[in-house]
């Protein structure tokens, strides 16, 4: 199959040739004809599957072939993204695909001055890429009208809900024309996403290019158990031993990012960090330097790393496991992209056992553990498996305590046989702010 057989027009084919795209990826093969035919879409596609071209190419074609010229302060298509970084990245891709088309594109997001964005929107743009908060600001200030909107794309919809944008999405939903095409992309499909889809989409075609909630199988994943206090030391050891050249490292908190970067820089290692406290320009600079290999180790929080598109990134290290299990899939989606192989290593301490269990349950796999000599933890990481069970092996069978908890809370309930019964992981693979409510605001 080729892009030509999918029915794409010549200016798009020329752009793809320049970019070196030869064969459509599975999500593109399914999405392109459906979008060209005017269908709504509900696509379960992870980052790295080529989903951006999957929606952008047919969207560009429809906008070129159909519909009136864009009016002042209007947009004909809107692509909503959870973060500024993703908005920038999606816009860059769209602009590349549109290089031979007479269409205008633009990206708006918060954290930068709104005035230049308002100026730019005066003439209208064919495709607007936006984060939800800034889009609403522009709409409320009359800088943007949405009555000419033909198509709405919700990119990484699960992430938008994770980041607490459900209310913004509900507001945007009320601003949209009823007659429109809507395309929803999400790495994972929880009940909340299905609810959102039920409200926003009209008889959508469902596309699932990888099994539900399963991470890309081109990524080799394993866990190194270690004591919390020795994580940084282990990281440096593994880095030197493996001669790592370019590594994206995830830490749980902003302080965690800063502490690791300080430690690495103190050892003369070329490292930089990005997190939500840093200004957008600083984050972009760090990212650009990492992409151009000026920086070897980039340490990031989940929010800051969202949407990073670094081709051929060989290795992702989870210095801390994510609190929300689905972030694990997003994190490791940074490697193993577009058919390349990649590695994802997680440094896991005993405190993180419930997170590990939630990740294994979500991805339906038991992650291989590799003990690193001299770093065997004093605090053993209890055994886990894909059933969500955390098995604490006692040295001697104990009698149940009155509270029903043998040892730490959430590690499992002891039963008479000395076995451990399945426990609910305290960190469930669910979103933090999951409610999409199109009705009136609930009182808090
Ligand atoms: P995405 O999942 O949209 O973030 O895309 C992941 C990466 O794959 C990006 O770097 C794209 O440029 C690249 N890509 C997308 N489609 C293709 C294709 N058909 N052939 C080669 N590379 C592609």
Average of the residue pLDDT scores: 83
**Category by helix and strand content:** alpha/beta
CATH domain class of the largest domain: Alpha Beta
Number of helical elements: 15
Q: What quaternary form is this?
A: single chain
Name the shape in a single word: globular
CATH architectural designation of the largest domain: 3-Layer(aba) Sandwich
Give the DSSP E fraction (strand runs of 2 or more residues).
15-25%
Bound molecules: adenosine monophosphate
Domain unit count: 2
Q: Count the E strands.
A: 18
CATH topology of the largest domain: Rossmann fold
| Largest β sheet strand count, sense and barrel closure | 7 strands, parallel
How far apart, in Å, are the first and last alpha carbons? Answer: 53 Å
What strand order characterises the main sheet?
3-4-2-5-6-1-7
Rg over alpha carbons: 23 Å
What is the percent of helical residues? 25-40%
